Amino acid sequence: MKVNENCVGCGQCTAFCKKDAIIVKSKARITDKCVECGICAAYCPMKAIEVGE
User: Fold this and answer.
1) What tens digit of pLDDT does each residue of 14-23 get?
2) Helix, coil or strand: residue 29
3) What region holds the 4Fe-4S ferredoxin-type domain (predicted)?
């Protein structure tokens, strides 16, 4: 999982992450708790989270 430059730090992705693997300060950051399920990417309104490498 990768956060791209579209991230505005809205935090909506954190509401859907079942592993509590996203930290948002000025932008989202994916932690090592991530299991790459892709739920956060599906709900990101800015399409700022990319699944895969």
Assistant:
1) 999 999 999 9
2) strand
3) 1-22, 25-53
Kind and range of the H or E element at 3?
A: strand 2-3
Partners of 50 in beta bridges:
2
For residue 38, the enclosing domain spans: 2-50
CA atoms within 13 A on the CB side of 25: 3
The domain that holds 43 is classified in CATH as 3.30.70.20
Q: Residue 53: which pLDDT band, with cuts at 50, 70 and 90?
A: low
Residue 47 CA neighbour count, 13 Å, CB half: 0
